[in-house]
Amino acid sequence: MPDTAAERTLGILLVSASAAVFGLTGVLTKSIHADPLTITCWRGFVGSILITLYVLWRRRQSGGRESLRLGWRGWLLASEGALASIAFISAFKFTFVANVAIIYATAPFVTALLAFILVRERFRLQTLAAAAVSLSGVAIMVWSGFGTGHLFGDGLALLMTIGSALYMIMVRAFRDTPVVWAGAVSAFLLFVLGWFVTDPLAVSARDAVLLVAFGTSFALAPILWTEGARLIPAAESGLLGSADVPFAILFAFLFLAEVPPAASMIGGAIVLCAVFAHGGRDWQAARQRSA
Question: Which residue from 232, 238, 111, 89 is spatially nearest to 171, judged by alpha carbons?
């Protein structure tokens, strides 16, 4: 909990900046001509270096108290995160940025459903209602993809969302695992995979610049969120973090002139209403408890 209004303001700015940076993922992916594995390779290389530097700096700030030992849980977390990242990047190559962003916005609800199925974790009635509404919006988007050539990309986005949900469940289950450090290792695994499967050096100078920018944004988003989330309540950081979806759609329109079909816009509006209504209720409840 922040001690001063200045700290709270800083936390809001950092988490909002994290959402904006994460919202650039679709634009950067589509602007790079290289294949998805080459993109994940360079994104992982640059991102792993920057995240590692952040982890070492944060560890030094804490006097070395933060462990860097992953164990089998950390390696499982890193491997699962790497696979989800491949599906995430690939999805942008085969469908609209808006579709990927909006499908990914349902991750908290998919997480709640999988947590109930896998570990019998109970969820609230408002979460169930929001999940039902948001999934109906996704159904409209996916249904519109039949016969348009975008169904494969929507499927990858769904796969990535399920992978992200499993990742969040493991983060909660493996509480002693250094999550940010596992993220750095996950990024490095992407680099190793890409190096052996593709030819990462066979990229144009233009793509090389964009790949470095992509890797930087990949590292910057979680760093900004981690630092900002320390200064504001969890419900508020979760609500502000959801802003990455409208940012992604806005950036796709501004930089790619990408306008999704009407069905995607309708389904997306339904999902966003469910996500922000659910987050807003959590934020209000948190404020009432702290009053």
Answer: 111
Select from 241, 249, 244, 248 the least CA-distant residue to 283.
241
How many CB atoms lie under 10 A from the CB of residue 72?
A: 9
pTM equals 0.86
Instruction: Note down pLDDT in tens along the chain; length 291 residues.
Output: 445 777 888 888 998 999 999 999 999 999 999 999 999 999 999 999 999 998 888 888 776 666 778 888 889 989 998 999 999 999 999 989 989 998 888 888 888 888 888 877 777 778 888 888 888 888 887 776 654 557 888 899 999 999 888 888 888 888 788 888 888 899 899 899 888 888 888 899 999 999 999 999 999 998 898 888 888 877 777 778 888 888 998 999 999 999 888 888 888 888 888 888 888 887 787 777 766
> Cα(76)–Cα(242) distance, rounded to whole angstroms?
26
In Å, how far from its chain's centre is CA 279? 16
- 227, amino acid identity: E
Under 8 Å between Cβ of 113 and 131? yes
| Torsion from C-alpha of 223, 225, 227, 232, nearest 10 degrees | 180
* Per-residue DSSP letter, 63: T
Residue with tokens 């390779």: 41
Counting every residue written for the chain, the total comes to 291
The token pair that represents 104 in the structure block: 């990914």
Rounded Cα gap, residues 278 and 239, in angstroms: 9
Pairwise CA distance, residues 51 & 4, whole Å: 28
Q: What distance in Å separates the CA atoms of residue 95 and residue 110, rounded to the nearest whole number?
A: 21
In 10 A of CB 172, how many CB atoms?
11
